[in-house]
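INFO  loader      accepted 1 record
INFO  loader      residues=227
INFO  predictor   begin
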Amino acid sequence: MRRASVLFLLFASGCAISPTRIHSSWSDPTFTGPGFGRVAVLALFDTEAESRSFEREAVVELTERGVDAIPGRTIIEPDIDATQEQMERALASADVEGLLIFRLIAVDERQVYRPPTAYLRSMPPGIVWGDPFYWYYYPHWHYYWHWRSSLAVTSSPGYWEEYTYVTVESSLYDNDTGRLVWTAKSETMDNDRFDRLAGSVANEIVDMLADLALLVPAETGLAEASR
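INFO  predictor   done
INFO  writer      dumping tokens
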């Protein structure tokens, strides 16, 4: 129950903080563009269902930014142990400029200790002004208020919370040359809803690639390539 409350606060709080954090990234300094306007998305997770779900979420994120994106499993059959030549032919026939691969790296369980916290249980009836916690930390001149403040202000017990963190490696390849253009490792707090986890990772990665101009709207990519 505590875990659900913490996750709700993360999503519902006013601060625009994504549960996904990019810990490290690298980009090819020799790559000069143009950015990719048509990409295939390939997800490699523990199960076929998770992989397909992740590809769908990533395609949605890319499409919303004007990138022409297709799930990798519509090009490459997951049950076939394809050779490099077969994969290259499949990608060439799909006429994609880039290949964005998401790969599960690790799933870690971590515990966080929440220390005891003081809270006001009830308002002493004889107090009409001031900070209620002041009565607790600074003894009153009369013994009744010394006792009353100790009764009113109490502490919740400390406790441990357990969280699951998922580490994903994301890599963008140039389909024409087959070379790696950009890669990053991200970490996401798992909330037991894989579609939300996938959406969070895809959103963070696609945002970063768009900021780097490695992903561009399809029309832009075609215009730059024709120059």
